From TrEMBL:
This is Chloride channel protein. Keywords: Chloride, Chloride channel, Ion channel, Ion transport, Membrane, Transmembrane, Transmembrane helix, Transport. The keyword Transport applies. It holds the Pfam family Voltage_CLC. Its main location: membrane. The keyword Transmembrane applies. It is found in: Membrane. The chain crosses the membrane at residues 15-36, 48-70, 101-125, 150-178, 190-208, 228-252, 264-282, 349-369, 375-400. GO terms for cellular component: chloride channel complex. Signal peptide: none annotated.
Length: 426
């Protein structure tokens, strides 16, 4: 037993002290990040609701400035951040990991997401939160100097898990995501250490920020298990749409590779103008993470099919641009919109339950992590009693999505970051 513990857990006291310190710093940093991100998207939405035409000035300039700056000076803060963590855990090369994850990368991510939200981009904060958490925890390895690959990769997965826990107040989902997505190649024993630190982060987050469900309390809504089969047509629809989103994302990212500064600027301007159009027609509604819109939908304020269509293509455009920003919450908002549109066909199931199931299904189809998708949404809505139907929908949508695009989207993007971070032959 002693030999087992010494192999799978750190032996030095300073490692545990650093894990505690990293946990505290992660909670403080991500809470600050969430607050300023919420503030910046609120400013944009308020302004564009009154003056929609301003989106044609603000959004393109934001896309051009941030995409150009990121590509030229801090390439590895681009996108959601989750592919960077996957690439770092897959790599044995220290120089690659330090390019992808560091205190400097975390600070850059916080600053650029603030500006991106201020410019009206339809992005989420969960992927960046995961990237920030992973960067903070791995940043402590400069002092710890861990040499064993097992512990280094576990440290990265712990940081990513912490980021998701703080962002969504979802401890189970955070722990599952670390193992299901970030650390696909980690040994099962790492899950014990991830769980220990994840629970610590959750406890610290409650002390620092409170324990409110991210999307409200829907624990009073239930679903007769004999009606679960009725949700399968919806699971197929969101599975197809999620699979198409992934396939289109990778296709356009490969097609829009820019080789010089002029191309970067032109592509960024064109993509920024597309987002500006959506912001103009929606009066800023498609901007930001979609958190506000999800709350409206769950409270019977239908946003219409036009919201779903615009949000889908706006998020696709933004993600393809590689501008810093996540896809979790925007995907959940698209799923909520789809659920609201099909809820009228379910006379025996509460509208809120249909919406929650659609959110689970669409997110699972996009990120191809059915366990994480189920638990993160049920924890955010206090709906863990809906676990069985949630898992059915998640795995069904995941299966359909897999038929459209076999490789999970984050894995495909992680390969690109691994190549970019690898030392180039002279």
């Amino acid at each position: 037993m002693k030999k087992y513990l010494s192999y799978h857990f750190p032996n030095e006291l300073k490692v545990y002290a650093s894990l505690i310190l990293a946990s505290v710093l992660t909670v403080i940093a991500i809470t600050f990040f969430l607050q300023i991100s919420e503030y910046s998207q609120h400013i944009f939405k308020t302004l564009i609701a009154k003056h929609p035409a301003l989106s044609f000035i603000i959004t393109p300039i934001t896309f051009v400035g941030i995409i150009y700056f990121a590509k030229q000076y801090c390439h590895f803060v681009q996108g959601s951040g989750i592919p960077q963590l996957i690439a770092a855990t897959d790599s044995r090369n220290k120089s690659i990991r330090e390019k992808l994850l560091s205190f400097r990368v975390a600070a850059g991510k916080i600053g650029l997401i603030f500006l991106t939200m201020l410019g009206g981009a339809p992005i989420g904060i969960e992927g960046p939160s995961i990237h920030i958490g992973g960067s903070i925890f791995y940043g402590f390895n400069r002092f710890l100097k861990l040499n064993r690959k097992f512990l280094i990769h576990a440290l990265i997965a712990i940081g990513g898990s912490a980021g998701l826990i703080v962002a969504f107040n979802a401890p189970i989902a955070g722990i599952l995501f670390a193992y299901e997505e970030i650390g696909r190649n980690l040994k099962k024993q790492a899950l014990i250490l991830i769980m220990m630190v994840g629970l610590l982060v959750y406890f610290l987050e409650i002390l620092y920020h409170g324990n409110q469900p991210y999307l409200g309390d829907f624990s009073s809504y239930s679903l007769d298990l004999t009606l679960v089969w009725q949700l399968l047509p919806m699971a197929i629809v969101v599975g197809v749409l999620g699979g198409l989103f992934s396939r289109m994302t990778i296709y356009f990212i490969n097609k829009l590779v820019a080789n010089n500064k002029t191309q970067i600027l032109v592509i960024a301007l064109c993509l920024g103008m597309i987002i500006a159009l959506f912001n103009y027609f929606s009066k800023g509604q498609i901007a930001g993470s979609g958190h506000t819109e999800i709350l409206q939908i769950l409270n019977h304020q239908a946003l219409g099919l036009d919201f779903v269509i615009m949000k889908f293509f706006a998020v696709l455009t933004s993600f393809v641009s590689t501008i810093p920003g996540g896809v979790f919450m925007p995907s959940i908002s698209i799923g909520a919109g789809i659920g609201a549109e099909v809820a009228n066909f379910y006379t025996q199931i509460d509208m809120q339950v249909v919406v929650i199931m659609a959110m689970i299904g669409y997110l699972s189809a996009v990120i191809r992590a059915p366990l994480t998708s189920t638990f993160v949404i049920l924890e955010m809505t206090m709906g863990l009693h809906l676990l069985i139907p949630g898992l059915v929908v998640a795995f069904a949508a995941n299966f359909i999505s897999k038929q459209i695009y076999h490789q999970p989207i984050y894995e495909a993007l992680a390969e690109k970051f691994s190549k970019k971070a690898s030392p180039q032959p002279k």
